[in-house]
Every structure is written in C-alpha cells, then in structure tokens.
Design brief:
alpha+beta; 12 helices; 3 domains; 4-stranded mixed beta sheet; AbiEi_N; 18% strand; 3-stranded antiparallel beta sheet
C-alpha cells in the first residue's frame, strides 16, 4: 500500500534506506516510502535508477554504460532472495577482499535455507545450506559468510593453487588469524581430507596469488623454498635485494625467485646482485603443473656445493 508521505519526505526516506543497502532498494520499499509504481518506472526510464533484478533498483553511484558496483550487486541479490539469504563462496571472498580467485564471475553466490525457493535467475547461483549464527557476519549491513566458513566452502570446490592463495591472503591481510577455525568448519564434510592437507602449507608472508601458486608447485615438486620475502644484505646490513622466494641451504649462493604478474611482455632478467642467482615466475609458468619446480630444480643443481654426479 502506497504511503501518503510528501514527495520530499519520500525521497529523504529512500535516500537514507539506500545508503544502508549499498544504494539499492526494492520497489516495495519505494512504494512504502510514498512513490507510486509509475514514479518508479519513470525514474528507471530517465536513467536515474538502474534495474538490477525485477523489482530491485540501484538508485545512485552507477555508470549507465558500465556494470554496477560489486556491493550493489551483492545487496541486490540479497534483497532479491529475501532476508534469510547470505552472500557466500566466491562472492563472499571478494567482499572480504581475499585474493586468489579468477576475475569476477557474472553471478552472485548466495546460501539459502532449504525452505526458500527464489525464482530462478541466471545472475544468481543458489546453494542450500544450514548456517549457524557464528558463520554469518555483517559487512556494512550485508549478511556474508564468516571468513572461516567462506574459506571452508571454497576449499572444497576450487583447485588447490587457488585455495592456497585464498588461505595465504586471509592470513596476510589479517582477515583470519587462526586456521583452526577453517579446519573445524570443513571437518567431516565430503572432500575434507584434501582441503585440510592445505592448511599447514598456508603462509601469511605470501603477497600475491601468483606467489602462492608458484610456491605450491615447488612444494609438490620437492623443492620448497627456504624463505619467503627474503632480504639479501651486505656485510654492513644494507639491503641488496628482496625476493618473494629464496633457496639457500647447501648452495654456493642464494637462489632468489620473484612472482611477477606484471601485464604485458615478460621483462628481461634483472641483474642479480653479487653472489646471487635469480628466477622470475609468471602465470604462464604457474599454470603449467611442474614447470616452476622444474626451473627451480635445474637452477639448484647448478648452485649446489656438491652437485649430483660430482666427485
């Protein structure tokens, strides 16, 4: 039923509501604030509002020629599916600012209780799940699965290199400090053994998803790095170089490894400082299983104090 509030009062009430909902409102909310269906339709036709779903509108902060902001998309999906829906999986990871997933997908992941049956929509990917109160957090009012629940759900579904990147990112950014929470959230679920094997490998010193993927390939290939974010110093303690990965045990001098995902053609090898060798790893390396480890293994063989086959 439409309210009898004045147009100015309706605009003020709607603006305040939209600010609490990522700029998004429902048509029902607009009508309750005092707008008619015809007024809502006119706002959309004139480009002042953008329809995100049937009866769900973005009221501000959008580029008419571009995609809506992430927060608005998530709020629109949540409002579309009702108050019991919760943003989860990859969509939750993005709003939690976890690195390690591929570019944004064209749908929003939501967890819903079994009793809910929203109308199908290709822009939404729905997952039936029972969540405890501790597995839901509020980010700017938006219900999102907790970091531990988000990681647990994703570890069971995505490749191990992406999963390790997410774990590293959560630790690096302080989103999560105790991986025991993830262990408890994933335990006893199908595929839990594979997911739990990754937890001891996570390292908050990692600074990028590429670095995590390269490190995992080295671990799998039997050449794990000795250090992360290694600083090579001279005799006076001055920094000569810094590297994402470093191997130094049993070598004539350190082997440094850089995870470099700079767009464009690969850069040429940087001149290593005195008494040091250096490798550069790109996504082209990390996406071929065993390639990073093979390059490291070959370089280590050249640098060993007693290389294989020597007398």
């Amino acid at each position: 039923m439409t309210s009898t509030r004045s147009p100015q009062h309706a605009r003020t009430a709607l603006a305040a509501l939209a600010r609490r909902q990522g700029g998004v409102i429902l048509r029902r909310q607009a009508q309750e604030a005092g707008l008619t269906r015809e007024q809502v339709r006119t706002l959309v036709q004139r480009g002042r509002w953008q329809a995100l779903h049937q009866g769900v509108y973005l009221t501000s902060g959008f580029d008419p020629g571009g995609p809506p902001p992430l927060l608005a998309r998530l709020w629109a999906a949540h409002l579309r599916c009702g108050p019991t829906s919760v943003i989860g999986l990859g969509s939750a990871a993005r709003v939690l600012r976890l690195a390690g997933l591929p570019p944004e997908l064209p749908y929003v992941d939501l967890l819903i209780p079994r009793s809910r049956h929203p109308r199908p929509d290709l822009r939404l990917r729905l997952h039936v799940a029972a969540l405890t109160p501790g597995e839901v957090v509020r980010l700017r009012g938006l219900p999102v699965t907790s970091p531990a629940r988000t990681l647990a759900d994703l570890l069971l579904r995505i490749p191990e290199d992406q999963a390790l990147g997410l774990l590293d990112s959560a630790l690096h950014q302080g989103v999560l400090t105790d991986l025991g929470e993830v262990d408890r959230a994933v335990r006893y679920r199908p595929g839990a053994d594979r997911a739990r094997r990754l937890l001891p490998l996570a390292d908050g010193r990692a600074e990028s998803a590429l670095e995590s993927a390269a490190r995992l390939d080295c671990i799998r290939g039997g050449v794990p790095p000795d250090d992360l974010q290694y600083r090579l110093l001279d005799a006076r303690g001055r920094q000569l170089a810094r590297a994402d990965l470093c191997w130094r045990r049993g070598l004539r001098h350190p082997l440094l490894g850089d995870a470099d995902d700079t767009p464009g053609p690969p850069r040429g090898p940087r001149p290593p400082p005195g008494g040091c060798s250096r490798l550069r790893f790109s996504w082209a390396d990390a996406q071929q299983p065993g390639r990073v480890a093979a390059r490291v293994r070959a370089a280590l063989e050249q640098l060993r104090v007693n290389p294989a086959g020597s007398r």
